[in-house]
Amino acid sequence: MAWVEDGLEQDMWRHLTRVVAITTHGSSRLVNLVTGGVGRRIVRRGLPKMMAPDGRGRFIGLYSMDTIGDEKRKTFLVSLPRTLHQALG
For residue 32, what are the contacts with CB-CB under 8 A and spacing of at least 6? Predict the structure, then answer.
């Protein structure tokens, strides 16, 4: 969790109500789930415990980045503004 701690001091988390993590994975969603989905778990379960009482974490991932085509990558990028608006709304 060092990558999280570098971003904010520990006591600053308690003021946040929303955190959104956007990432890509070379492996499939299934492989990520089988290996524990650590990043998703941290964002969805761990961070909200450090945040304000109504804090929520949203994890947005593009899986199989190494094998999907350009069209799926483009669709993911185009959908991000709407997805972020919903996540932060």
Answer: 25, 40, 61, 63
Is the separation of the CB atoms in 16 and 55 below 8 Å? yes
Per the listing, tokens 């185009």 go with: 78
CA dihedral 17, 23, 25, 31 (to 10 degrees): 10
66 dihedral zone (left: phi>0; alpha: psi -120 to 50; beta): alpha
The whole-angstrom separation of Cα 89 and Cα 86 is 5
Residue by residue, pLDDT tens for the chain (89 residues) are 455 666 566 677 888 899 999 999 999 999 988 988 888 999 999 989 989 999 999 999 999 999 999 999 999 999 999 999 998 87
Beta bridge mates, 61: 23
Q: For 64, left (φ over 0), alpha (ψ -120 to 50), or beta?
A: left
